[in-house]
């Protein structure tokens, strides 16, 4: 297909983006790159982005720009999974989780749009989760960064949307405080890569395709988005100071000490923190003792009784700076 005939599609959340500013940036980049006229698709309450992304593909889009936060990115990626058409990430919304983990721009709209019309790309894995509801109905969804059960999911479910819009990720602190009265460990059995089942009790279980969160928190330090592996973190605070040890592990040890050789030496010489356990594999099956709230990339997905996750290696193509 010739460059002159190529066109881009923008899938955007009209509530979260400055459409006038976004149109100016896209028109400038498409003209400078010699592309055809970009087509625009708005998400809605009934379509987080999947349906309009399918429409964009049917009309021949050569790249899909996702603008509207982590939920919009996840919805677009769900359709582009396994396709040759790449996704481009535009800074919008609260977390910009995937862009953060791929070291893409979080602040410059112009730079992100220019990247979308460039030629540089990389492939990454997509996490795929099949969830089972209480009446044994099943659904398949993707996640790009993390899926979670326990306090993590309860906190997201209780987040005030208006407060989140006003103060961003600080709204999760408020939600966390409101989730504490319901704090109880999650009891489950898990099967990793077809091995025998094992029991696990944890306050939070995170399944990661990537490891970084806003605020410099490196929750899962060994997670990389292109190794075909899921990295799992179980938070199991014990005793009065358990949550303090968890916090110290994921902020100080993961976020600070791991950045230097001296810091890594300190970690190697320190006693392992049993309040946080890591393991990894290509496929993880989870059977819950009781229904639990579940989240994907920061969006609540209701309660589930079982989850089966795997890493679909190299299933998504992402535009990156040249």
From TrEMBL:
<keyword id="KW-0443">Lipid metabolism</keyword>
<dbReference type="InterPro" id="IPR050187">
    <property type="entry name" value="Lipid_Phosphate_FormReg"/>
</dbReference>
<keyword id="KW-0808">Transferase</keyword>
<dbReference type="GO" id="GO:0016301">
    <property type="term" value="F:kinase activity"/>
</dbReference>
<keyword id="KW-0418">Kinase</keyword>
<dbReference type="Pfam" id="PF00781">
    <property type="entry name" value="DAGK_cat"/>
</dbReference>
<keyword id="KW-0067">ATP-binding</keyword>
<dbReference type="InterPro" id="IPR001206">
    <property type="entry name" value="Diacylglycerol_kinase_cat_dom"/>
</dbReference>
<dbReference type="InterPro" id="IPR016064">
    <property type="entry name" value="NAD/diacylglycerol_kinase_sf"/>
</dbReference>
<dbReference type="InterPro" id="IPR017438">
    <property type="entry name" value="ATP-NAD_kinase_N"/>
</dbReference>
<keyword id="KW-1208">Phospholipid metabolism</keyword>
<comment type="similarity">
    <text>Belongs to the diacylglycerol/lipid kinase family.</text>
</comment>
<dbReference type="Pfam" id="PF19279">
    <property type="entry name" value="YegS_C"/>
</dbReference>
<protein>
    <submittedName>
        <fullName>Diacylglycerol kinase family protein</fullName>
    </submittedName>
</protein>
<dbReference type="InterPro" id="IPR045540">
    <property type="entry name" value="YegS/DAGK_C"/>
</dbReference>
<keyword id="KW-0594">Phospholipid biosynthesis</keyword>
<keyword id="KW-0547">Nucleotide-binding</keyword>
<feature type="domain" description="DAGKc">
    <location>
        <begin position="3"/>
        <end position="133"/>
    </location>
</feature>
<keyword id="KW-0444">Lipid biosynthesis</keyword>
């Amino acid at each position: 297909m010739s460059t002159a005939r190529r066109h881009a599609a923008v899938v955007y959340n009209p509530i979260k983006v400055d459409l006038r500013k976004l149109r100016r940036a896209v028109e400038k980049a498409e003209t400078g790159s010699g592309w055809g006229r970009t087509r625009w698709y708005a998400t809605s309450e009934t379509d987080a982005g999947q349906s309009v992304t399918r429409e964009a593909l049917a009309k021949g889009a050569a790249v899909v720009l996702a603008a509207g936060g982590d939920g919009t990115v996840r919805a677009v990626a769900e359709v582009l999974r396994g396709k040759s058409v790449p996704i481009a990430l535009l800074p919008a919304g609260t977390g910009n989780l995937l862009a953060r983990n791929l070291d893409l721009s979080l602040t410059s709209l112009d730079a992100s749009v220019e990247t979308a019309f460039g030629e540089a790309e990389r492939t990454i894995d997509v996490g795929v989760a099949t969830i089972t509801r209480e009446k044994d109905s099943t659904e398949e969804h993707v996640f790009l960064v993390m899926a979670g059960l326990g306090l993590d999911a309860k906190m997201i479910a209780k987040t005030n949307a208006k407060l989140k819009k006003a103060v961003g990720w600080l709204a999760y602190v408020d939600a966390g405080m409101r989730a504490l009265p319901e704090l109880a460990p999650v009891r489950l059995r898990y099967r990793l890569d077809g091995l025998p089942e094992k029991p696990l009790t944890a306050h939070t279980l995170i399944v990661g395709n990537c490891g970084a969160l806003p605020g410099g928190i490196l929750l899962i330090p060994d997670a990389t988005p292109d190794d075909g592996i899921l990295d799992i973190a179980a938070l199991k605070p014990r005793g009065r100071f358990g949550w303090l040890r968890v916090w110290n592990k994921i902020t100080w040890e993961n976020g600070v000490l791991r950045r230097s050789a001296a810091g890594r030496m300190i970690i190697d010489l320190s006693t392992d923190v049993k309040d946080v356990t890591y393991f990894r594999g290509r496929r993880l099956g989870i059977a819950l003792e009781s229904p639990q709230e579940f989240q994907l990339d920061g969006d609540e997905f209701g309660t589930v009784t079982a989850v089966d996750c795997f890493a679909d290696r190299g299933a998504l193509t992402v535009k990156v700076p040249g």
